[in-house]
Amino acid sequence: MQDFLIHPNLNINDKGHLTVSGQDCADLAAQYGTPLYLLDEQLVRANCRAYVQTVKECFPEGSMPLLASKALSFTGIYKIAASEGMGTDLVSSGELFTAKKAGFPLEKAFFHGNNKTDFDIAFAMDCGVGYFIVDNCHELNAVNREAESRGIKQKILLRLTPGIDPHTHKAITTGTVDSKFGSVIENGQAEVIALQALAMNGIDLRGFHCHVGSQVFDIDPFVQAGEIMLRFIKEMQTKHGYVTEFCNLGGGFGARYLPCHPTPDYAAYIRAMAAEIKKICDALMMPCPKILLEPGRSIVAAAGTTLYTAGSVKHTPNGKTYVSVDGGMPDNPRYALYEAPYTVVNASRADKATDCLCSVVGRCCESGDILQENLRMASAERGDIIAVLTTGAYNYSMASNYNRLPRPALVILNGNENRIGVRRETFEDLVACDAD
Ligand code: LLP
């Protein structure tokens, strides 16, 4: 058994090739070219269902998981999420436009972002976005102004900062008091902004939001943040008679990138979290508000695989081996940004011993263009298909055209069928916005 088979949809066929959802990676590479993003629709749907059903079973009616668009945004993912009954969280007008284009029911959309421009605010109201998640008092004033000028009351949640550190990578920790996001609960700023919102003609305050961080495998930070939020909600009721409809606890459950990571059971996490939330509400003698969650990575990460073709395989005088592939930091900047771990497989020789210690590097003119350092895989030769696993979240969505590399295609696998989700960019696409 090869320990790189870290997701249930991975296997090895009788040619010794890696398969995803039963489909041969070498065949997919031959059909669509490389680099190539794969997304297993069945796995995405299974994750959506785990969230939708468990949230329904454990929290009051009206509670809902929202797909965090930032993890993966293209029209196809909104169609899948909508058909599974998910809402969505959007952080830009571009994500909003994409969701709208896909026919996503925008009354279930929550518009995030710590600096919505006047254009964003007007555009989101034009599109009929259900809820704004307002970050700070400046934004609150701007949303109120626009709503008043339209003679509407815009439904909003306020983003609060509960002051929790989930001990994940510092770049993806967001809930601490010095964060750029949200209004701080502990110094009274949150209460002030909530009272301002309640007094505004253009604002219909429906609840509060927080997000502690990302790639977290433990429910404790969520429960701690939940407790701080619920205490605040209780205080708003006792002091000001305000009854909160929604408490949004954000996203953040982790994905399995390496064989040594746990195999997450999202339904079990939600059940355990719900039991703790219920205890807190009971102790505070208040009914549980509707709960919103914003999973991104946990919905799409494991469903994604990126295929590359190996080029040069180079041995340095000090014994390092570099396997260069035909993509790199433009399609996956996560190692360069966060030293993010990934499991890498020689998909053409998946049945062979993983006895080659090497670094898999990209094709950009930059030594930081590394996909993964010092990993073990079966020795590669030029032309082998190399698979990087667990790339469904924050890969396509963070991709760039650095070195004018066209962005890869994204192919959706559904059982033994496949279809283009996003076509490969062409050279003409690269110059499409350039002036003559
Ligand atoms: N909600 C809010 C308000 C967020 O800020 C985030 C992620 C999420 C939900 C979704 O979190 P998830 O379930 O995906 O962990 N680019 C980084 C991740 C940045 C996450 C930022 N916020 C990465 O590649 O790891």
In short:
The chain is of the alpha/beta class and 436 residues long. The protein has two domains: 10-33 and 303-431, Lyase, Ornithine Decarboxylase, Chain A, domain 1 (Beta Barrel), CATH 2.40.37; 41-299, Alanine racemase (TIM Barrel, Alpha-Beta Barrel).
Q: How would you characterize the overall build of this protein?
A:
The chain is an alpha/beta fold and 436 residues long. The protein folds into 2 domains: 10-33 and 303-431, Lyase, Ornithine Decarboxylase, Chain A, domain 1 (Beta Barrel); 41-299, TIM Barrel, CATH 3.20.20. 30% of the residues lie in helices and 24% in strands. The chain has 12 helices and 21 strands. It has helices at residues 25-32, 41-58, 75-83, 93-101, 118-127, 137-150, 189-198, 220-240, 266-284, 297-300, 334-338, 427-431, and strands at 10-12, 18-20, 23-24, 36-40, 64-68, 87-90, 109-111, 131-134, 154-161, 183-184, 203-209, 246-248, 290-293, 304-315, 321-325, 344-346, 356-361, 370-377, 385-389, 409-414, 417-422. Strands 4, 14, 15, 16, 17, 18, 19, 20 and 21 form a 9-stranded mixed β-sheet that branches. The protein has an 8-stranded parallel beta barrel with strand order 5-6-7-8-9-11-12-13, surrounded by 6 helices. Strands 1-2-3 form a 3-stranded antiparallel β-sheet. Strand 14 (304-315) and strand 15 (321-325) form a beta hairpin. The longest helix is centred in the middle third of the chain and has 21 residues, at 220-240. The chain is globular, with a radius of gyration of 23 Å. The termini are far apart. The model has no long low-confidence stretch (mean pLDDT 96). The structure holds ligand LLP. The site of ligand LLP has 20 residues, from helix 10.
